[in-house]
Design brief:
Elements lengths: L11 H31 L13 H12 L2 H4 L9 H30 L1 H8 L6 H29 L8 H28 L6 H12 L4 H25 L7 H22 L1
Helix pairs in contact: 1-9, 2-10, 4-6, 6-7, 7-8, 7-9
């Protein structure tokens, strides 16, 4: 079995199925992004607007640049609406971005083992894993709380907030992704009997050991949550560009265009 947590208790056949599914999901996602970029390139909304003459690569750079700007990351546009909503939106965005970056780095390390080489050169570098694992756990908990806030808000505000099935569904998938991640880590730690620095993983492991559950049952349970975890990620990856949440990146271009128009109007005055 693979030593890395993602492929622990997973057969070679399932691992290849995972790779194929990720590639297909990524291609579907890229197609969705490309479709949106083509709309912007053609200038369907306003052909005379300067920003619509940008090519795909320039639009992507602009979107990411604006996404990581203080106006977006700090959700300043919500400051006049609701500070509570603004706070949880900031938590959702920051925790999601950092967790995604962490997963990508972890995935890269699985193939290159670059952290092992760094640890050999700088022994103290190993201690950073304690900090990083703790940070990821805090961010995971924060993401669960913020998603629950958004869901509860939609169901407790009467008719003021539309109960969009797509938004609710995407939030539920995010919940499944994070919670199942905690569960597969806790089961893995309880099975291989290693010291784990994560509080949630160690707590789940302690609970499972306390109840002396059958090993075969735990392995089956791990596979079940692994399927839920991976399936949730594949669905999110494929559907994100077509979903309501795509505005997190697309809206940056709209905001930039609006800002340019305002600047132009002031100059004309």
């Amino acid at each position: 079995m693979e030593p890395w947590w993602l492929f622990w208790n997973v057969t070679q056949e399932v691992k290849w199925l995972f790779y194929i599914s990720i590639i297909v999901s990524l291609l579907i996602s890229i197609k969705g992004v490309r479709k949106t970029l083509l709309i912007w390139e053609k200038g369907i909304d306003d052909p005379d607007e300067e920003i619509y003459n940008l090519k795909s690569f320039d639009l992507i750079k602009l979107s990411f640049k604006m996404f990581f700007s203080p106006d977006c990351l700090l959700a300043k546009r919500l400051s006049r609406v609701s500070n509570t909503r603004r706070f949880f939106l900031i938590i959702t965005i920051l925790s999601s971005v950092i967790l995604i970056i962490g997963v990508l780095i972890n995935f890269l390390d699985y193939f290159t083992h670059f952290t092992t080489y760094i640890s050999q050169i700088i022994p103290s570098f190993a201690y950073t894993f304690v900090f990083i694992s703790g940070l990821f756990e805090i961010l995971g908990i924060a993401l669960i709380i913020s998603v629950l806030f958004h869901l509860i808000r939609r169901f407790t505000n009467g008719e003021r907030i539309p109960k969009n099935p797509e938004v609710i569904g995407m939030n539920l998938i995010i919940l499944l992704l994070v919670i199942s991640g905690f569960l597969i880590e806790g089961i893995r730690v309880s099975m291989i009997k290693i010291y784990d620095t994560e509080f949630i993983g160690s707590s789940i492991s302690f609970y499972l050991k306390l109840h002396s559950l059958d090993k075969t049952f735990l392995l089956s349970l791990h596979k079940l949550f692994w399927i839920i975890h991976v399936s949730s990620f594949i669905i999110l990856l494929a559907y994100f560009p077509y979903s309501y949440f795509s505005h997190l990146f697309a809206s940056q271009i709209t905001l930039y265009a609006a800002k340019r128009r305002e600047e132009g109007e002031k100059e004309d005055e």
